[in-house]
Specification:
This protein is mainly α. The protein has a domain of 35 residues. 73% of the residues lie in helices and 5% in strands. It contains ten helices and two strands; from the N terminus they run αββααααααααα. A two-stranded antiparallel ribbon has the order 1-2. β1 and β2 form a beta hairpin. α4 runs antiparallel to α5.
Length: 195
Amino acid sequence: MDYIRQTFAALGLVVLLGGTPAALAVQPGHTLVAQTTAEDFFTRGLKKKQAGDFAGAIADYTRAIQLKPKYSLAYNNRGNARSGADDKKGAIADFTKAIQINADWGDIGPATAYYNRGNNKYTLGDKQGAIADYNQSIKLDSTDPDAYYNRGNAFASLRNKKAAIADFQKSADLYRKAGKTADYKDALARIQKLK
């Protein structure tokens, strides 16, 4: 019974001190050891990225990946942090790895990684590569208005007005259905600009 009380007391101390919930293990001789999980590092990375600490986020996502190598969501989010730190090539590598692994996506899926990779390719000037990634994103999730909108931008930059207008129209329709009025109006303005 002392063993159980020691475990609960230690867990209460960790929570009381504001520690990250971690797996707790009791070693022989009743020594308590906290084990930080891949998900703990992932959560820390998410908080750091949201605070603008891209280097800290990258370090935490890297640790999550070391603990759980087939963690597509961690690769995707590390790619976002690298993109935020202006390492577009590193971001593309992470999105590519997330797509290749294609496991443990959490509440997103590979469509998001294709979309994110497309954004980074577009920024680097690879418009055709961006379009190819937006195509894959749309194939996997045809309800994402941002993928159509960004593909429309890529088509417009390549002077393919017909394809750009079609994508901006599709994104406008999806934005309207989602109640995103500002985005809807922006997509319509893009169409008018191309006509």
